[in-house]
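Quick board copy: two proteins, each given as sequence then tokens.
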Amino acid sequence: MPSFSFRRFAPALLLLACVLPPLAQADAALDQIIAGPQRSEAHRARDVYRHPAETLNFFGLKPDQTVVEIWPGGGWYTEILAPYLREHGRYYAAQVAPSDNAERNGEIDAFEAKLASDHELYRNVAVETLSPPQFTDIRPAGGADLIVTFRNIHNWLKDGTAQDSFKAFYTALKSGGILGVEEHRAAPGTSLEQMIKTGYVTEELVIKLAKDAGFVLAAKAEINANPKDTKDYPKGVWTLPPGYAAGALDHERYQAIGESDRMTLKFIKPGAIAK
């Protein structure tokens, strides 16, 4: 067997190092932003459950991408994604439309207040509307490299808009683009009625929704798993932190369990890899 000569391959290795993206630098930049002062203390305290660096790295986030976050709520991930993408990428927030739902309207108001609180930090945030069936066109110019959605699918099941939402994601992505999903995870075999009631959704249903829209499952991760979560609470997933829907009842018990057990899934839109 011929021996390996580093000197022989050194020019090719040097060229390869020059053309590959600076992954370590990108990760360091993300870590710095996650630790940055723009994040509220309440949001930072949830990192132990939400694992933002690991989750975003799993989805393949890069600083020069066009990224769409679906229903950003009060902006937990906005505090990370907007500054990370500000200089070289683009961050789109596909927000829910105002309605007669007071909780969702409150999230819209909180999100708008966050953007207004620091114009320099959030100056490049573009806000779109996703509320099927009326508003489904969330396509950025040229298409998105990455779409992310965090703990929203149970809402779409309740509204009857889950399939329309996944179709909108497929349309908005470039060929080869990635859909990253995090959702409260139900036990296999849980009925649709129970999913809507408890807020926990089966992996099987999420994968089916994505595949029916045209996506291919690329990978699964246990980044946001929580084996302590028994998923049998009187007020569903909202019993656990940060909601504590049961109030003072068994508060210490739920605090010890922590936030919900969550699936973390990566889907790809078939075609050439997005750049």
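And the next:
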Amino acid sequence: MVNHQNESCYTGCGLEDWTLLAGESISASKDIFLKRDINWTVRCGSCDLYDELKELKTEFDINLYQRLAEPENRTNLIVAPASVSISLGLLQFGARGNTFMQLENALGYNIHDPKMQDFLHTGYEEVTNSSQGPVVQLACALFVQAGVHLSPDFIEHTALWANSSLQKINFSEPNSTAAQINEWVTSNTEGGDADCIHLDTVVSPLTQMALVSTMYFKSMWQKKLSFTDTQSLPFTTADGITLKVPTMCHTAEVNYGQFHTTSLEQFSVAELPYLGETVSMFVVLPSDRRTSLSQIGSHLSAKIITVWANSLKRMKMDIFLPRFRIQSHFDLKMVLPALGITDLFDPTEADFKGISEQGGLYISEAIHKAKIEVTEEGTKASGATAMVLLKRSRTPIFKADRPFLFFLRHANTGSVLFIGRVTNPSE
């Protein structure tokens, strides 16, 4: 239960001054925390609430990845959960009734709470601040059938919500619809670094609304790698096939740790920083080749990622990381129902009266695309660049010569920008 003492201390407190008074962990109370009409009980003088909210947001990121990773656990995969959550937050502004509650339950928060909006806006601005090196661009667009009269309040929320936009479109004209959506995608991925989205189902005349999200990341490594150190080295896939792949080699000071799951599968984690060290790539490598990535992936949680980030130790290591390039295109209609979000895709159940009083609106398509390219120079395109490693010495070795998980994490906000897995770098 949440302790409701000292509720009056909201007045005059900034977000950084709040501390959650709760007896349950964020994971235990996830389904009841920040629900509609529940008061936030805080006291001034600490940033504990900020940490709780970071963990709550990260929990959605991990849940999304785990749902996407379930169907095919032997393929490369990349997802930008921060982009998806911004899109769902936008929909929450316009949702009502059970549709709203499903979004609230999945995300873990009520988007109408001004304090939550402040927290998310602050985090968005910090993540996308490129003054310290990495370029991060999140965007989402809600394409709405021309002729639908939109609520002025929803239009106002969209204008203020991260990098979001409302686009009028005529879904009965397939060619112009595809061109308009892909032009938007191109403009939000630095001039077309991401390929166009396939719109085979989006261009149906029956389409009411289409939700599209993108994320772009580009950065140099903190310590640039040399192409001359890259070698063709063995990589053994989950199927036991050994391939020769270009492998980046480097000796560097990195944060490193060894851990195990609750069922005692051993794995190691190396943190590879990008320029400015505001964003790092965490590489998660099973110690035993027989341990599947699904065994490690199912172990992930927001709390565990925080533990990793806080307990890694600085040490000099020889690092070997294959170059890889992954592009994933997801139909979120196949994924979000596993998170309890079903009504918004149902013409009879969807309630988007906050978007338009005309009624009858529902999400016909929800599309997400992410892309990552990891090279010696750094990260590029609608995905991030993975990290690299090196020469022969007597220093400890971190050698990603078998399937591994990775995620890009913003240090200050704890935001998981990208998360994925590499099962075959040559694909």
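Board note added afterward: The longest strand covers residues 242-260.
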